[in-house]
Amino acid sequence: MSALAPTQKAPEGIDLIGRFAFAGAVCCSVTHGSFTPVDVVKTKIQLDPATYNKGMFSAFRQVIKNEGAGALLTGAGPTFAGYFAQGAFKFGGYEYFKALSVKTVGLENARQNRIAIYSVSAAAAEFFASIALCPLEATRIRLVSTPGFANGLIGGFSKILKNEGVGAFYGGFGPILLKQVPYTVTKFVAFEKFSELIFAQFDKSKMSDGAQTTVNLGAGLLAGFAAAIVSQPADTMLSKINKTKAAAGEGTVSRLVKIAGELGFRGAFAGLPTRLVMVGGITAGQFAIYGDIKKALGATNGTEIAK
């Protein structure tokens, strides 16, 4: 009689978190990178609403007319690199902190307080993810806001470092936290809740891979819309603060107060329709790709606390 094939052990510990991190890195870099043209237009609208004031499609035509079609890919390098690093910390960190929270408070308590668990885990993960993202996001915004500033990621990063120092990369760290933490918390909480509501109507174990991916897309799209609205004002402030370097003696807090006063409520939400398209599409794609890569890597034994 032939010997039975050994059962492959499911990944656990650092191995499991590493697979989550890799899946997150890929899904974030691919989706954000793919939306670079939309991000360019969104940033233009935020920084110069007087010029780009006729909606997203008109802004696309204006950018192409004024700077050429190639301008729509400005900042693609920093976008891919920045969100590869950010995605690893965000998704890997979220799974890590969620598992740690459950271990700390117990599964039943976690289930009773799962929105708090989702929120704390997402916020903690995003803090570290933003540290990784901030220098590359500062480079991207400078490339988009100042045509001709440098040729791509290496040139832009090196120029800022040489002329303004390391601190210039983190001038927008406050705004990026104000943007990314509410965005990420809303994104994960909304996705978990929408997924929970959808999967409650079906037997997940009997659903095909395609059906599960479709659920991830739908829940991700709705989560993206919610996250975009919550984080829009901080996103606009981030674009403004990274457009130019600070004046002599001007601190980050004073710059934020000044920018907020200049923007007002309406200005804070400039470019929101474009960002809804971008963030909705990005978030839907992220969760769909993330789920598929996790399956491919055998990383399907993450911490689940939905009832």
Characterize the structure shown.
The chain is mostly helical and 307 residues long. It has a single domain, classed as Mitochondrial carrier domain (Mitochondrial carrier fold, Alpha/alpha barrel). Helix content is 75%, strand content 0%. The protein is built from 11 helices and no strands. It has helices at residues 13-34, 36-47, 56-67, 76-105, 107-112, 114-145, 152-164, 173-199, 209-241, 252-268, 272-296. The longest helix has 33 residues, at 209-241. It is globular, with a radius of gyration of 21 Å. Residues 1-5 have low confidence and may be disordered.
Keywords:
single chain; 307 residues; mainly alpha; Mitochondrial carrier fold; 11 helices; 75% helix; disordered N terminus
Put simply, the count of helices is 11
When the domains are counted, the total is 1
Q: Would you identify the CATH architecture?
A: Alpha/alpha barrel
Largest β sheet strand count, sense and barrel closure: none
> How much helicity do the residues have?
over 70%
Q: Mean pLDDT across all residues, rounded?
A: 86
Q: What class would the helix/strand composition place it in? A: mainly alpha
Radius of gyration: 21 Å
Output the CATH class name.
Answer: Mainly Alpha
Q: Look up the CATH topology.
A: Mitochondrial carrier fold
Number of strands: 0
Spatial gap, N to C terminus: 44 Å
Q: Which strand-content bin applies to the residues? A: under 5%
The CATH superfamily name is Mitochondrial carrier domain
What is the ordering of alpha helices and beta strands?
A: HHHHHHHHHHH
Shape: globular
